Amino acid sequence: MIDVKFSTILRITIVPQVVDMIVKECGVNELDATNMFYRSQTYKYLSDEETKMWHFSPLTIFNIWKVEKETGEVIFPEEGLL
Predict the structure, then answer these.
(1) Residues 58, 20: contact at Cβ < 8 Å?
(2) What is the mean pLDDT for each group of 10 consecutive residues in the chain (82 residues)?
(3) What is the rounded CA–CA span in Å between residue 68 and residue 66?
């Protein structure tokens, strides 16, 4: 289970910014963008505090999501190898 404090950080600071980028990039509404992100492997990794993925900027997380959408693979930036 996700720690409440960690979950709050995701919900308030990171996820809304990534969702906004998905809305702009994909031309979908906020609800669809939110569902797209929450159903992704990228979000699965982000929500796992152990991966430390939350250290990445929302733009980097969006780009990881975008690559996943295009290729089906989650590829971390070199400095973020797990």
Answers:
(1) no
(2) 74 94 98 98 94 92 97 85 50
(3) 5
